[in-house]
């Protein structure tokens, strides 16, 4: 979390006086990738990095935003149907519009915000931004929407105002997370449970490839379209309701690419269930084994990896890491690694050395601390 006093100072110098301060986090995901929009399971938790915002209603018809990290400002009126053209500000504009559509009387406000989720690392800085404003504006303008509804407002913002047809995982995690716990969400029913995450003898660490991951205008939507084509052919609402037998029976009617993508998704739904069971037994080696299988599927069948991420996962295996895989949408960003304590230091040291030798740039380790979800700080 960034220094919220600096944020308040910045608010005071720009708008004068004081404001309420809110925070919403980015997320990790242990396993269950590209399963959310297929009605499957995901296993996320929040990180302690996120977006913080100082916000105060201004009694006028205008919203005034200042993105401290970017040094950029923007103003718009919630009643304006076009909204800002700068994608960054469309996240906030979309949240405002969707809250109003859900019956929250959002009026003009002033806000200064910033964060410490590395951008393009696949840790969902955009969901953190949406969740922070959705939670804050609902609170400040007297709305009574529950956290799942607020998460859906963030997701709708991605769909309608940014153009990414994402699932619900990131916004769900940012809204519902609890310190020290991962969550298993059934994306078909919306039901979820908390799993205390205290892996005795192990640590979770992300390694940022520093290849910028960007889902806007990326092949992310194409992956989703493949899944929807296969589901339609199989006569089910989402791939979660398809079986491997059914998929095999459709083999000749599908492109090789759609077939491989659907095969990955069906395997991943099973792996999340296997990981839930393994966690119940405290079997972290099995959790790690499933993580490697996920990476293979994401790389070969779903084709959302890149040479840098494949290298990081291969190196993790060589260095005796229990489990590693690319995390999030793919096309860059981070790997998530489950590492036994005694291997941790050597892993990070060696990994950084070999990555630089291979690609000529640094990768960035990010130790994971599991934090709380969206909230008002003061
Ligand atoms: C992005 C999306 C999520 C999810 C992941 C892949 O983070 O926002 O909804 O689909 O990719 O698991």
Description:
The model has no long low-confidence stretch (mean pLDDT about 95). Strands 1, 3, 4, 5, 6, 13 and 14 form a seven-stranded mixed sheet that branches. The protein has two domains: about 5-195 and about 370-375, Ribosomal Protein S5, domain 2 (2-Layer Sandwich), CATH 3.30.230; about 200-370, Alpha-Beta Plaits (2-Layer Sandwich). The chain has about 375 residues and is an alpha+beta fold. The chain has eleven helices and 14 strands. The radius of gyration is 21 Å and the shape is globular. It has helices at about 5-15, 85-100, 125-140, 145-160, 170-175, 220-235, 245-250, 255-280, 285-300, 305-320, 340-360, and strands at about 20-30, 40, 45-55, 65, 70-75, 110-115, 180-185, 190-195, 200-210, 325, 335-340, 365, 370, 375. About 45% of the residues lie in helices and about 20% in strands. The structure holds alpha-D-galactopyranose. Alpha-D-galactopyranose binds near residues 33, 37, 170 and 328. Alpha-D-galactopyranose (GLA) binds near residues 34, 167 and 329.
Keywords:
11 helices, 7-stranded mixed beta sheet, 4-stranded antiparallel beta sheet, Ribosomal Protein S5, domain 2, about 375 residues, globular, binds alpha-D-galactopyranose, alpha+beta
Q: How do you describe this structure in short?
A:
The protein contains eleven helices and 14 strands. With 378 residues, the protein is an alpha+beta fold. Strands 1, 3, 4, 5, 6, 13 and 14 form a seven-stranded mixed sheet that branches. It has a four-stranded antiparallel sheet with strand order 10-11-9-12. A three-stranded antiparallel sheet has the order 2-7-8, covered by helices on one side.
């Amino acid at each position: 979390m960034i220094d919220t006093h600096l944020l308040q100072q910045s608010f005071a110098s720009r708008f004068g006086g004081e404001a309420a301060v809110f925070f919403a986090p980015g997320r990790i995901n242990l396993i269950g990738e590209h399963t959310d929009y297929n009605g499957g399971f995901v296993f996320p938790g929040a990180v302690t990095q996120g977006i913080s915002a100082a916000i105060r209603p201004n009694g006028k018809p205008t919203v005034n935003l200042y993105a401290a990290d970017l040094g950029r400002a923007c103003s718009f009126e919630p009643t304006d149907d076009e909204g800002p053209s700068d994608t960054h500000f469309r996240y906030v504009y979309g949240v405002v519009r969707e809250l109003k559509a859900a019956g929250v009387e959002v009026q003009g406000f002033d806000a200064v915000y910033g964060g410490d989720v590395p951008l393009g690392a696949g840790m969902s800085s955009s969901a953190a931004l949406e969740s922070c404003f959705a939670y804050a504006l609902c609170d400040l303008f007297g709305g009574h929407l529950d956290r799942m509804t607020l998460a859906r407002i963030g997701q709708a913002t991605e769909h309608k105002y940014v153009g990414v047809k994402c699932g619900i995982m990131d916004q769900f995690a940012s809204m519902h997370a609890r310190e020290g716990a991962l969550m298993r969400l059934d994306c078909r029913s919306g039901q979820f449970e908390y799993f205390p995450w205290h892996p005795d003898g192990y640590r979770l660490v992300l390694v940022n490839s520093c290849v910028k991951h960007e889902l806007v205008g990326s092949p992310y939507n194409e992956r989703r379209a493949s899944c929807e084509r296969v589901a339609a052919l199989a006569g089910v609402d989402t791939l979660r309701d398809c079986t491997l037998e059914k998929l095999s029976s459709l083999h000749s009617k599908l492109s090789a690419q759609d077939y491989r993508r659907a095969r990955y998704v069906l395997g991943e739904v099973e792996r999340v269930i296997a990981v839930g069971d393994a966690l119940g037994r405290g079997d972290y080696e099995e959790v790690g084994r499933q993580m490697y299988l996920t990476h293979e599927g994401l790389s070969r069948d779903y084709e959302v990896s890149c040479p840098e991420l494949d290298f990081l996962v291969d190196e993790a295996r060589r260095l005796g890491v229990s489990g590693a895989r690319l995390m999030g949408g793919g096309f860059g960003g981070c790997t998530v690694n489950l590492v036994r304590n005694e291997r941790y230091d050597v892993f990070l040291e060696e990994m950084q050395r070999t990555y630089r030798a291979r690609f000529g740039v640094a990768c960035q380790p990010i130790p994971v601390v599991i934090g709380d979800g969206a909230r008002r700080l003061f």
